[in-house]
Amino acid sequence: MTEVLTPEQQDFYAREGYLILENRVPDAIMDGIRAEIDRFRALARGMTASDDRIDLEDSHNPDDPRIRRVKLPHTQSQPVDELMRSDHILAPVRDLIGPDVRLQTTKLNMKSAGYGAAVEWHQDWAFYPYTNDDVLAVGLLIDDMTEENGPLMVMPGTHRGPVLNHHHNGYFAGAVDLQAEGIDMADAVPLMGPAGSISIHHGRVLHGSALNRSTRDRRIVFFEMMAADAFPIFGQHPHPASLEEFDARMLCGTPTLEPRMAEVPVRVPLPKPPTQGSIYEIQKAMGKRSFEVHQ
User: Fold this and answer.
1) Where are the domains of the chain?
2) Are 130 and 233 in contact (CB under 8 A)?
């Protein structure tokens, strides 16, 4: 028995590596999330550089704050944390990876109207491989998502293939050269829907997003999660500081001391790139880019 997904939706996710569930989160909760975004924007006013809470656009001005990412928003916002732990988010996740779910990370990506930064093609799995690939990301669409405002795009079915090359000049660059991999941009599928919808994409599916050149914002909160029996392999992100810290990330169900080992491809994201920071900074090491860079 499933909680919210149909067998057809489960089969589609297994085959294509993504889902869109429209109008999943009620308007009242969405209003609370938007109020939190306004608060983050107020915090960014006067900032001259990114810090451990807020990642600024390259075009940011202290008098005209421009945020491209709020880091770990669930630790900075009670409404975001409460939503992450609610059935609005966790019910479809349990239908896909089982009842025991652990948090990997969260982020609020903000593509403001007219200048929102692109994210180059990548697989989340390239940054943090696990012992099995019941790993996914839930994206909350805070704004109506259309082709014009830089929606998340995926390459269907790529979660069933290899870990692609995310290196450049001998360093992990967190981005894939589509041409070198023989992948056609025309095969990309944009994940669109009205505000309050959620997208779900598999941790191994190739995805990215273009600049927002529209007159409308494009903002998404990502909740990245995995099955509780998926244990980290040597990767780009630091390992848990302790078992207690790892288990403190349980969102529902029961933790385990028995990792489930699956035959999944792994590529180590090392050596680390010369430029450290968010994915936007890491991807600056990439040579050929798929998306135009904002000037």
Assistant:
1) 7-285
2) yes
Distance CA 108, CA 71 (A): 7
> 13 and 202 in contact (C-beta within 8 Å)?
yes
The domain made up of 7-285 is a member of CATH 2.60.120.620: yes
Over the stretch 241-275, which tens digit does the pLDDT of each residue have? 899 999 999 999 999 999 999 999 999 988 887 77
> Who's near 67: CB < 8 A, 6+ residues apart?
40, 41, 44, 54, 55, 56, 57, 60, 110, 112
Calculate helix-pair angle for 7-16, 87-97, nearest 10 degrees. 70
Tokens of 207: 């995805």
With a cut of 60, say whether residue 295 has pLDDT above it. no
Residue type, 139: G
Residue 76 tokens read as 């900075």
Residues forming a β-bridge with 222: 107, 139
Contacts of 7 (CB under 8 A, 6+ apart): none
Residue 9: left (phi > 0), alpha (psi -120 to 50), or beta?
Answer: alpha
